[in-house]
Amino acid sequence: MDQQWNATYQNNIIPALKRLRKVQGVILGFHSVIDGIKRVKSDEIETILNTNLDLKQSVQEKIYAMPTEIFSPADMMAGLLISIKSGKSYRMVIRDKVTFRWILETFGYDQLKLGGTSGCMANSLAPLDLQKILVYTNPLTQQLLELFGENDNLYVVSQVDENIQLRHPHKAWQHKGIEAIHWGFEFAQGTKIQLNGITLTAPRTSRFYPCWNPVNEKLLLSPSFKKGVLHFIDQFSHFIVSGYQLLSPNYPDGTTCIDYMLSTLSYLNELKVARPTLKLHFECDTIPADAIRYGIRKHVLPQMDSMGLNEVELDYFIKDMHGQTLNQLDQENSVEYYFGGLVELATKSGLERIHLHNFDYYICLTKRSQRTSPKRTRQAMMLSAVIAAQRAETGSVGNKTTFNSAKAISISEEGLAQMAALAKHISAPSNFMKTGIAECNDYNVIFLPTKIVSDPVSTVGLGDTISSIAFLSE
After folding, report:
1. How far apart are CA 318 and CA 322, in angstroms?
2. Quick one: which of 199, 202, 214, 349 has the fewest CB in 10 Å?
3. CA distance 384 to 68
4. What is the CA radius of gyration of the chain?
5. Is the Cβ–Cβ distance between 50 and 56 less than 8 Å?
6. pLDDT in tens, 52-62
7. What is the DSSP string of 12-76?
8. How far apart are CA 265 and CA 204, in angstroms?
9. 438 and 432 in contact (C-beta within 8 Å)?
């Protein structure tokens, strides 16, 4: 089966790559930030806990009930341990400046990289020779903008006096300083943490993101960006939206996350009026706050053409739709569970396309009323899987994407096992294990077993790479 799927991969990625390079232009907003990458070391974590017994006790109490935001060192450490224990990627926003300083002074970082959904997508897409990539960055600091690649297809909106133009990020910075940083605590499969006689073991390689970003906590878009994009909108065919995880449910001034969601959506509607063919994709992130997820389901998704999310993010929405609590997010769930949730979310939100990217497999649902064929969707998913595997193996994306460079990377055996389970669950056609294509209700079902890198250089931003490439090359 591995050999057969390798052949299918090999025959399908080039058409998708050609389509990707014909995309007129893509806008990536609203989330670019500096990532502080930190490799998790068991002895370092245990030493921090064992030298502060009050912290250790508080963390012990919190690991059984996931904090929604970070207001203390204990919240941050509990989030990290929950992520390690489950082997899943979680993101939590830091709301307390003292805690931000504690994390910075206690852990520091191993390296700084471009992060945020929009930033990760930009640096993954740029080497693939897209025509034009416009990225939202706020603030326009030297430390942030110099993390973008040298590629001449990268742009930000720059305003000097009344003159608004598109410029390469390296030429557009306005001041110096680090005003926001998102940590990426990366841990390897098998990482073990001892906590009061309990051993927490990571079942797979993943990461935990504590995020400090007060400058964007209301997602108030830069006036120059809004004006510039409207002015240049005819040069762009796609917009990938992200960043709502930065919001708070409520603010001291009496406003709520819904107020700021509606503000961004009003602007996106302006763009759609100016450019009716503009395709909108929403890329989800870990959002522990109920009110923000509710706003996304009620207000954001109905305006989107497409959505991308991972299994943790989907699990949140499934529990929301079923009125369940979130204290069991670390449990393993079956492909049948995720598939049912994916169909339900797509149906209730009216999405034309929804893409789940899991560690071992991807599932994409596309409305059968649309003209895109399932084989075309599968080509795009395969391209994204190959590039993601190369990025995991080498730490970056190159501009010479060929299947040969990923041929030696194995097809996930677990992905194939889950594929068989789903085939039985939905009574898929007899050739489903060979094609990954079926139908369910009003949707085409495209299932893809992924390529697995056993010892990845980095996993930060892989989901963003997968979603953006699959959406744009379809």
Report:
1. 6
2. 199
3. 31
4. 21
5. yes
6. 999 999 999 99
7. THHHHHHHHHH---EEEES--EEEEEEE--HHHHHHHHHT-HHHHHHHHHHTTS--SSBSSHHHH
8. 37
9. yes
Whether the bond into 282 is cis, omega within 30 of 0: no
464 neighbors 389 (Cβ within 8 angstroms): no
Strand (E) or helix (H) holding 163? strand 163-167
What topology does CATH give the domain 36-113+184-214? Adenosine kinase, small domain (3.30.1110)
Judged by DSSP in three states, 315 sits in helix
Q: Tokens 């030297």, residue? A: 142
pLDDT digits (tens, 9 = 90+) for 177-186: 888 999 999 9
* Per-residue pLDDT at 399: 64
Amino acid letter for position 38? K
DSSP 356-418: EE-SSEEEEEEETTSS--HHHHHHHHHHHHHHHHHHHHHSS--S---SGGGTTSPBPHHHHHH
How far, in Å, are 153, 155, 231, 232, 353 from residue 159 at the CA level?
19, 13, 12, 13, 36
183-221: pLDDT as tens digits? 999 999 999 999 988 999 999 999 999 999 999 999 999
47-94 pLDDT, tens digit per residue, is 999 999 999 999 999 988 878 899 999 999 999 999 999 998 888 999
CA–CA dist 60, 381 (Å, integer): 40
CATH match of 2-35+114-176+215-473 with 1.10.357.10: no
Q: Where are the domains of the chain?
A: 2-35+114-176+215-473, 36-113+184-214
Question: What is the length of the chain?
Answer: 474
CA distance 29 to 26: 10
pTM: 0.90
Cα 231 from chain centroid (whole Å): 28
